[in-house]
Amino acid sequence: MRGEREIGPWGLNRDMEEAVLLGVCAGLARRFGVGPWAVRILMLALLVLFTGPVLAAYLTAALLLPRRRLIGTTAADEREFWRQASREARFEQEDWT
After folding, report:
1. Rounded CA gap, 95 and 30, in Å?
2. Which own/partner pairs from 70-79 qualify as long-range (CB within 8 Å, at least 24 positions apart)?
3. Residue 7: what pLDDT?
4. Contacts for 19 with CB less than 8 Å, ≥ 6 apart
5. Rg of the chain on CA atoms, in Å
6. β-pair partners for 14
7. Among 49, 57, 2, 5, CA closest to 28
8. How far, in Å, CA of 12 to CA of 49, rounded?
9. Could you tell me the residue ranges of all domains in the chain?
């Protein structure tokens, strides 16, 4: 299943913990050992200069690169976490109505 691998090709992945949009810049920053904002600023500069190719590369990476999971978690753990969070959100919403 796509997204279940922890490390993608060339050691790249999307880092959803540090993500602003889809985690591509944060994943690149983690892979190359630089700060995520340095990569984001570089991507923004490249986006201004080469809008089409940079946007296409970003979206392709977002679709193809797997998400980085927390150490020790499984896909089932993550599903259970979001299921529980959804239940709690519904419960809080009912309190307000």
Report:
1. 41
2. 70/17, 75/1, 75/4
3. 60
4. 26
5. 17
6. 67
7. 57
8. 24
9. 9-72
Q: Which residue's structure tokens are 């810049």?
A: 25
CB atoms within 10 A of CB 97: 4
CA 94 to chain centre: 31
The ranges of the chain with pLDDT < 50 are 1-5
Give the per-residue pLDDT at 56: 96
Amino acid in the structure at residue 48: V
CA dist 15 and 23 (Å) reads 5
Structure confidence at residue 44 (pLDDT): 95
